[in-house]
Amino acid sequence: MSALSIALSDGACLIGFTGSEPDLKTVLLRRLSNYYARLDDGREVRETSLEGIQLITAEEALAVVTRVQQIIGIEEQPGVDQPPLIGTRDLKELSTLLSIVFRWGIDPLYAKVALTWPETSVTNTQKIIELTAPAEEYASLFSLTSDLLRLVFPDGFQGRVPQTLITTTILEKHSMDVLKPCIMLGWLPRSLASDSRPVFDAARPMTMRFLNYLTPLQTITALGSILSSNPHPLPYVRKLCITLLGQQLLRPQGVRSLCAAVFGENDSPANDSSIERLQHITRVFLTVPANMKPEEFHNQVIPKIVALLNPQESATNKRAAAFVISRMLSGDAKFEHQDLISKISRIILLRPFSTGEDGKTVDATLSISSALVTLITLVSNADPSPTLISSLLSPIVSTLYSLLHYVDHVKTVDPSLRESLRGLIITWGKIVSTADGVHILWPILRSDEIKWTIDLEGNISRDNKAETHGPLSLLTPEDLRAGVENEYNINSNILGLYPDPSHFVQLLKTVNRADISSDFFVRLLEAYRDQKNDEGGDPTRVLLYLQVIMQMQAQLTDGKSSANILCKPTHLLSFIKHVLEPRMSTSHESNEQYRNQNARVNLQIVTPQDEEPSDEGDSDDDTPGAEVNNSDDEMIETSVNLLLSILEANEDLSARTAPILNHIFSLLEPLARDGSDVVRSLAKEARMVMTARLASTSSRKFASRNQDEESAKDIYQKALKLLQDPILPVRAHGLLLLRQLVAPSAPGSKDPKLDDDALVPAILSIFLQSVQDDDSYMFLNAVQGLAAMVDRFGKEVLRGLVKEYADGLDGLNASSMTQHDLDTRTRVGEALAAVIRRCGEALSLYVDIIVPPLFQILRSRHSPTTLRTSSLSLLSDCESTNPLSILSYVTDLANAMLDILQLEIVPTGSTFKDKEKQLPSVDTEPLSTNTKFPPLRRGALHFLALMMRETTKLIYESSFGSSLFSDDFIRRAKTTLGYVASVDSDDIVRVMAREAAEDLNQLNKAMLGL
Questions:
Q1: Contact at 8 Å (CB) between 860 and 815?
Q2: What is the mean pLDDT of the chain?
Q3: What single DSSP character describes residue 936?
């Protein structure tokens, strides 16, 4: 039998089947016994603990693997026997033996040593701890680690590495298991070392060479596993792992390997790119290895991160790279070397779009095409941070627009490139602030056109050799003749202006930022005025400004568009005021001279017949002051036209909402009097419109085209006006508006609501007056309005209603009540009934406000029976809505009902003794205080029956209320109800008494528990 077969057979004893032993300890002892018997070296197992037996098994397994490695790992030489081959089953056995070495040897020893290791320098106290430290475990770990390293490096760290499957298995499957003890033992600080805990100096070079044999992915995965292992690595181990991890990023595939280690190599949806992992990978990229300059490290790593934004990369890698770069560029994040990292990132991303002093592209890591694709990928995959997008794109907006201007005029360009460019600029325009947007867009009008070229492969570059023609040279006689025949498009850029006015304004419209467009328009008007008054100015620039102004007026003044520059007129009004002010100051003197010179002519009513008009007088150039008047007329005309457009677009705009209109109104006065014909006409029209608008502020035009734009007080004023209208439907609509104003807001509703508590008494008074209206629609709206006010404003309004219903009934005041007072109180009672029903379970909050006044009315002898019956109805509503809320009053109320039945009963015979003295009804005498009217007894019986039913229900549901009524009350109620059911003259009262008696029986049974 060969040496390899013997070694494999010995190893098989350590992992083979030994029978049906009861536990693992017995199995391992049997295996070791068989193993020692096979070796025949007389050794025996003296260890008794399971951990000790497992450690011995691991040591012997490593010895077997070492024997096999020495056999199959010999160097191949010509003329010498080749090393034997091993099969799949043997390889599986060796893999199992290696797993035993790490599982039962390295891992438990490492954990024991790490848990008992002092984390700081050795002090006198720690030396005492060292006496009990696991010196034996440390020695065993030292020995096993040394044997493992010799397994891979049998000839030392500079010698050859056996090219065997054992070496491959260790590198691919157990790299973390090897590195963990090597780092702990090899990099042990001298301050923590001792005689029983020596430093494993030989492990350091072997570990570094071992790392060289691993791929970046394997190394990063192994180091990451050590950092996240349990128990947590010691501080010096953690520091070294972070340093080694940073060094791995410098390898060619280091950055990509880190992403693969964190997120997985495949681009499946199962890969977790959670925020925690993204933040972790960012921290790794931002950590500079020890003994390395930050600038050198980041100059090597950041370009590799940017390379992950390539469209061919996986979605996970692009997402990770975009997240990391966004944190590098974000001003919110705080980390070490932030300025340096941000500078390097911006140089890589933005330098391709920059030009040197000679107009040529400066040297850059990326080409323009690659940089553009990278930017698009970055913006698409990063979080939508306005700060990031603004800081990233703002420096190159002019260049991006120049490129967009080029590709939009070249039909052969890839459409996706055109849309991506436009998308970048629009994205920037959506998030940039108003001031920054105007400041960054303005240089586009001041810059010269950049010449671009795109080759057949789609690579973009600057064309520095392109010939630049003057704009007028493009307008040839052939063009003129073609234009006459075909008629030029009004938006065509026949003079070759840059930017093309129509194209530039169309981009502003697409961005859809009315604030930016409005401020830009004001700045453009100011620049146009200044440039036009500058005698040495560039006429082409003046023409460009004028063309852009015309295009903005044509495209950005649509009343239905959200990009309408007239929708936010604050800055425009300031500009108009600024334009009109110089007219008052600079030309006032000339205008005064002009008026003095022409005073005599202006005062003539009839022109003398002998004076013929001179031909020279027809010339505007000879008119005194004409030159001064005409110098700013064009700008003033534009400003007044703009003012009229603003007033037309904003119907609610007036001096009340925009006080600046008062100043403009004053500035228009001299123009309307002394301006040129066109300006004078426009100024008069503007003053007329402003006067009419100013006069309408005292009596606003309430009917708005969009009711959602009305404020609550506008609707309040509108409702008050409608309530004064003689037409009933109009008044009803006003009351409806008022009710909607005070009603509680529905979830998600944006309807305006009145929050001014000072108006509540007035509204309450309006509703109280409206409840007296004979029209049912008005009355019901008023009732609902009162109920809504209680829902909205709470107890104070409820007290007002109760006060309106119950106050003033003391003594003889109640007997002097008029029909109008009674009607008002009963209708307020209906509103209270609606309030009580809407309260539901919340009635307990208001019961002390409601019940005592109602009870007081019921007890008032001077109150009309109708009102006392109404109060009984309200008490019944309280009982039916929430019986528990009036539980503290129910006994007194029940006794009061029995008192009414006993005292106010009308026996059957007494009614018909004398038909002439027959009792009148409530309908015929509503103000009567006669308590013998049947409705009072009916109300008492209704309350009693309702109270008994609700109390019975409470007893059955919760056993609550079983002792609420005494036996005396039950007997009295039974006697009274029986008597009323027998002798009362009113049929309805007798029926209700019998029903109440049945409910009383049910209540009695419930109280007895039957």
A1: no
A2: 77
A3: H
DSSP codes joined into one string, 793-817:
HTHHHHHHHHHHHHTT-SGGGTTT-
Residue 294, token pair as written in the block = 């930050």
Angle subtended at Cα 149 by Cα 147 and Cα 152, rounded to the nearest 5 degrees: 110
Provide CB contacts within 8 A for 806, sequence distance 6+. 853, 854, 856, 857, 871
| Per-residue pLDDT tens over the stretch 574-629 | 888 888 885 444 444 444 444 444 443 333 333 344 444 444 444 444 444 443 44
243 touches 186 (CB < 8 A):
no
Map residue 461 onto helix, strand or coil: strand
Q: Is-contact 679 636, C-beta < 8 A?
A: yes
Strand partners, 453: 461
Q: Which residues contact 393 (CB under 8 A, 6 or more apart)?
A: 375, 379, 400, 424, 425, 427, 428
Cβ(73)–Cβ(4) below 8 Å: no
DSSP state of 751: -
Token digits of residue 399: 């260049």
Q: So what's the pLDDT on residue 615?
A: 45
Q: Token pair for residue 831? A: 């509103």
The number of residues making up the chain comes to: 1010
Residue 806: is its pLDDT beyond 80? Answer: yes
Per-residue pLDDT band for 915 (boundaries 50, 70, 90) equals: very low
The helix or strand, by DSSP H or E, that contains position 878, with its residue range, turns out to be helix 865-881
- 443-463 pLDDT, tens digit per residue, is 998 888 888 888 887 788 887
Query: Rounded to the nearest 10 degrees, how much is the dihedral formed by the CA atoms of 776, 777, 781, 783?
Result: 10
Partners of 984 in beta bridges: 907
Contacts of 949 (CB under 8 A, 6+ apart): 999, 1002
For 388, how many CA atoms within 13 A lie in the half-sphere containing its CB?
A: 21
- With a threshold of 0.70, does the pTM exceed it? no
Q: How many helices (H) and strands (E) does the chain have?
A: 46, 2
From residue 817, alpha-carbon distances to 195, 835, 863, 866, 890 in Å are 112, 25, 8, 12, 29
For the stretch 834-870, pLDDT in tens is 888 888 888 888 888 888 888 888 888 888 888 888 8
Q: What are φ and ψ of residue 833, in 5° steps?
A: -60, -40
Give the model confidence (pLDDT) of 118-168 as tens digits: 654 444 434 344 434 468 888 888 899 999 998 888 888 788 888 888 888
Sign of the alpha-carbon dihedral angle for 664, 667, 669, 673: negative
**AA identity, residue 68:** V
